[in-house]
Amino acid sequence: MVFYFHDMQRRKFIQNSALAAAVLAFYKGDAFANGNALRAYQFKALRNDVGIFTEQGGTIGWLNGSSGIVVVDSQFQPSALHAIEELKKLSDKPFKYLLNTHHHGDHTSGNIAFKGLAEHVVAHQNSLVNQKLAAEKAKSEDKQLYPDITFGKGWKAPIGKEKISSYYYGSAHTNGDVVYHFENANIVHVGDLVFNRRFPFIDQANGAHIGNWITALDKIYNQFNKDTLFIFGHSLDPEKVTGDKEDVKAFKNYLQALLTYVSGEIKAGKTKDEILKATTIPGAPEWKGDGIGRSLTAAYTELTVG
Questions:
Q1: CA-to-CA distance for 194 and 220, rounded, in angstroms?
Q2: Residue 236 gets which letter from DSSP?
Q3: How large is the angle between the packed helices 210-223 and 292-304, nearest 10 degrees?
Q4: How many Å apart are CA 56 and CA 78, to the nearest integer?
Q5: Distance CA 158, CA 11 (A)
Q6: Residue 44 in contact with residue 64, Cβ under 8 Å?
Q7: Distance of alpha carbon 56 from alpha carbon 39, whole angstroms
Q8: In what order do the strands lie in the sheet with 242-243?
Q9: HSE on the CB side for 157, CA within 13 Å?
Q10: Burial environment of residue 220 by CB neighbours within 10 A (0 to 12, 13 to 18, 19 or more)
């Protein structure tokens, strides 16, 4: 099913939300694809009552469980309302959980649409801290629905015949990223721990660490099997927001290539400005799109400042 959200309405929403505007600056391709063209959203099933919703921001995952509905991430309020509308067409069961993979606004600005609807909002404890700090800075506290269940290492919950398990691997894209595994469906939502063939945002202000991110991806690759279907937060090709463990490995290799390249340039005496002139990362030519400078800057900072 494909529906449309008018560009004028989108701009009005962005103007009214400083937090959303700040995040959109990092994800310009998601929010303003095709310029003045109408933007479609997609709601589709994957397998075992688990599916995805895409419109603007990080990919939403969902479960139409036998005892209730579960949603992973919420994009922005207008798109969250579209997702809720579609889920209500599938089921009249209650919304049991809204799960946040991390705090960024393109994954949590839509939380407010679930106020009075979702029984619980779940996230890592660091994600809650980061979300509150971001809202305070943007003076948008009244537009937030914060997690009421937080955890450290992991969290589990049964939803009818499905079982959800969450895992935290330490600092990576931020210091509060988690994955959610729908065990029977064998589908894992990794949030922004994987940018599929697209230059990532590395949020060092909120605890990101490329070296630790590589370790986290290695753990994810080894923990799940060849039949696991992964939902990614972002993709260069919007039709490829799902994939397999080899895509996880490929992104890990991108981050390794990034560190290797920047480290070599530093050792060769290159300045930061010279390094930032790169248009591709040697060893990872598949990674494209806007924002290579974010990767290069983050790697340079991690290697020189720590």
A1: 11
A2: S
A3: 110
A4: 9
A5: 39
A6: no
A7: 9
A8: 154-159, 162-168, 178-182, 187-189, 229-231, 242-243
A9: 20
A10: buried
- Is 148 within 8 Å of 120 (Cβ atoms)? yes
Which pLDDT score, from 0 to 100, does residue 12 have? 36
pTM: 0.89
- Lookup: tokens for 117: 């609807």
The residue length of the chain stands at 306
Angle at 198 between CA 195 and CA 201, to 5 degrees: 65
**Does the pLDDT of residue 30 top 70, yes or no?**
no
pLDDT band at 7 (very low <50, low <70, confident <90, very high): very low
- Structural domains for the chain: 2-304 (3.60.15.10)
Beta strand pairing call for 178-182 and 2-5: unpaired
DSSP-assigned states of every residue in 98-141: EE-SS--HHHHGGGGGGTTTEEEEEEEHHHHHHHHHHHHHHT-G
